[in-house]
TrEMBL record:
MF terms in GO: catalytic activity; metal ion binding
Protein name per its UniProtKB record: 2-dehydro-3-deoxy-D-xylonate dehydratase
Organism field: Blastomonas natatoria
Record GO biological process: small molecule metabolic process
Record-annotated Fumarylacetoacetase-like C-terminal domain positions: 174-349
């Protein structure tokens, strides 16, 4: 990678030698699932040709894999997104701040210049109320009635405090990018931001087995013009980053660590601009496992899925002029960090200029077949 990524790279957490991590690396022959088990690296392609298959096996000891010795984070191994055949799902408006920001986008019709005044009015009128209610509760229903009477109700508030969470498909299978890759925003977007999140990895039985960092890039202008543009706002080339690894749940890391997690975000621009922010999963309005349950409601995922849990962080710090707020510029370096999950770094380009997505399901199956990795049931 070019520019600032030479100074700031993706990284494992400080305690990585005590945990178990699932990932994918790109070798000369193609992609392979890998495990880091207490500091030791294993190529698992001969055991399971994909990460999805390895997850379904449920054995994360490294047994049967090709031992590659102690993992060296400084070797420059090209890491891919740690998910492959899993669907990539995402939850939105799971924090009060993000609920308010979505309403701002809606009322501003995607026009950044109108956002500041709307933000002040909404935060004053409904900010505290949204933070204090449990979604789907009688108190939430009463708040809804009051907001409707005040003319402040919104479809975004429905998913913020109503019984049903917003769950959508973020990206096609195999379309996510990994650590130190370029991440894309639409070339015709003028108001956008990163969404630093934790994503759970869930197997076909519906069990959350681990977690990773993710960037659910958002185009505020497109979604603000119409919620029906959500697909165009969310799903573009290179617009979904995951990694650097999935940390699997064990004695050193559990779902409670996810519930208590702090996330740190740093954006560094080539123009000298820097933005820092923090968010805490303790402020999420719905429990992560409830979001998994709602994702599974009346749907099956035979290869499992990754699930973005939503973000508290909505940058409003002015970048170019007062009242303009934040939007990305090409060349921005986005770093998302957590003490248990490490650091995920990506550099912003336009989706048009990002490396084209070419390794689809058919191409992956052809590659695995040529390597002799596709076998029928034993």
């Amino acid at each position: 990678m070019e520019g600032n990524l030479q100074e700031l790279r993706s990284a494992l957490p400080d305690d990585w030698k005590t945990g178990v991590f699932l990932g994918r690396m790109l070798g000369d022959a193609g992609p392979s699932p890998i495990l880091i088990v207490r500091g030791e690296l294993y190529d698992m392609a001969q055991v399971a040709p994909t990460c999805a298959a390895l997850v379904e096996r449920g054995d994360f000891t490294g047994a049967g894999g090709r031992p590659l010795g102690p993992y060296d984070p400084g070797t420059g191994t090209q890491l891919l997104s740690p998910v492959d055949l899993q669907c990539i799902k995402a939850c939105g408006v799971t924090f009060a701040v993000s609920a308010i920001e979505r309403v701002i986008e809606e009322r501003a019709r995607g026009d950044w210049s109108a956002a500041s005044a709307i933000r002040e009015r909404l935060e004053t009128r409904v900010g505290g109320s949204i933070r204090s209610v449990v979604p789907g509760s009688p108190e939430a229903a009463s708040l809804k009635e009051a907001l409707i009477e005040d003319g402040l109700w919104s479809q975004y508030l429905e998913v913020a405090i109503g019984p049903d969470a917003e769950v959508f498909t973020k990206a096609p299978v195999l379309a996510s990018v990994g650590a130190d890759a370029e991440i894309g925003i639409r070339s015709d977007s003028t108001w956008n931001n990163p969404e630093p999140e934790i994503a759970l990895l869930v197997n076909s039985a519906g069990a959350a087995i681990g977690a990773m960092l993710g960037n659910d890039v958002n185009l505020r202008d497109f979604e603000g013009r119409s919620a029906l543009l959500l697909g165009k706002a969310k799903d573009n080339n290179a617009s979904c980053a995951l990694g650097p690894f999935v940390r699997l749940f064990d004695d050193s890391f559990s779902i409670d660590d996810v519930r208590q997690a702090d996330l740190r975000l740093t954006i560094t621009g080539t123009d000298g601009y820097m933005l820092k922010g923090e968010s805490n999963m303790r402020e999420i309005s719905r429990d992560p496992l409830d979001l998994v349950r709602q994702t599974l409601s009346e749907h099956q995922y035979p290869d499992g899925f990754a699930l973005f849990l939503g973000t508290l962080f909505a940058p409003v710090q002015d970048r170019d002029e007062p009242g303009r707020g934040f939007t990305h510029k090409v060349g921005d370096v986005v770093a998302i960090e957590n003490s248990k999950l490490g650091r995920l770094v990506n550099r912003v380009v336009t989706s048009r200029d990002a490396e084209p997505w070419r390794l689809g399901i058919g191409a992956l199956m052809a590659n695995l077949a040529a390597r002799g990795l596709l076998r029928g049931p034993a």
